[in-house]
Amino acid sequence: MERLSKSEIIFKVISYVLIGIFALSALYPVIYAFSASISGKVAYELGKVVLLPKDVNFQVYSLIYNDKAFWISYINTLFYTVFGTAWSMFISIMGAYALSKKRLLFRRQFNFFVVFTMWFSAGMIPTYLNYVEMGVNNRWGMVFAFGIQAYNIILLRNYFESIPAEIEEAARVDGASEFQMLTQIYIPMSKAAIATVTLFYATSRWNGYFWSRLLLTNPLELPLQVYMRILVENYQKMIDDLGDLLTYASDSYAYAILVCSIIPILIIYPYIQKYFAKGTNMGGVKG
């Protein structure tokens, strides 16, 4: 076993310490939010909750469990995330595959138009008016209207271009169609990039707030993030009215909903993160 020099040992120790500090700083807000959500009112208001909970009380989670509006918004967010991500990936994969082919007519022009949208946009007001004219004010409208992001198409296109052309030529000699080459060669060989882009889209859909708040008119179709905002606004009024009658900390309910909202991401991310670095690096090499 090769022995490390003194400088290498010092470098590794410093690296591990810095990484550990960074990991703890990223993890601390999540731990604090959970601790604050289950801590007693007095302990929280006196500032005793720093990391671990004090006077554990799960009352707010009981309230959330019985909150029908919360579960409706939760289901809406799952709907937007699942169907929205599936639609976005379908369009992105198809577009990226076409743009990666040098035989595509006007390929350079199409690529330019995709990149152009990353530099310039119509602006918020024209975009809003456009969505209103198209009737983007319901669940399916939110799914289809926000289908793709130019950066993700470029990421997939670059990854597809990195696949050796000899593999496609061999498949074409065997009589494979374009659809077969996409589904049986390109997609299986691009799992890292596809997983990375899927994570991008899913996170964006799950955290979607701004356009949902502006466009959706039916309260029963609002996603979780919008519901949380409305709840915090109304909850503050309730706190002002009830005051000392509350048996839990004033911010506990908001923290509890925050914890519930990030659970799916915390569950899914560890299974996808192993593809993240590889997918981003490979997809960003070629321009």
Keywords:
disordered C terminus; 2 domains; globular; mainly alpha; 287 residues; 14 helices; MetI-like fold
Structure at a glance:
This protein has helices at 6-38, 41-45, 59-65, 68-99, 107-119, 124-133, 139-145, 150-161, 165-173, 178-189, 191-206, 210-215, 224-242, 252-283.
CATH class bucket of the largest domain = Mainly Alpha
Q: What's the domain count?
A: 2
Count of helices?
A: 14
Task: Give me the Rg, rounded.
Answer: 24 Å
Overall morphology: globular
Helix content: over 70%
Query: What fold name goes in the CATH topology slot of the largest domain?
Result: MetI-like fold
Instruction: Find the structural class using helix and strand composition.
Output: mainly alpha
Mean pLDDT: 84
Q: How much strand?
A: under 5%
Structure description:
The structure is a single chain. Helix 3 packs across helix 14. This protein has 287 residues and is mainly alpha-helical. It folds into two domains: 57 residues; 226 residues, MetI-like fold. The radius of gyration is 24 Å and the shape is globular. The C terminus is likely disordered. The protein starts with 5 loop residues before the first helix and ends with a helix. It has 14 helices and no strands.
Give the topology.
Blueprint: H1 6-38, H2 41-45, H3 59-65, H4 68-99, H5 107-119, H6 124-133, H7 139-145, H8 150-161, H9 165-173, H10 178-189, H11 191-206, H12 210-215, H13 224-242, H14 252-283
Helix pairs in contact: 1-14, 3-14, 4-7, 4-8, 4-11, 4-13, 5-8, 8-11, 8-14, 11-14, 13-14
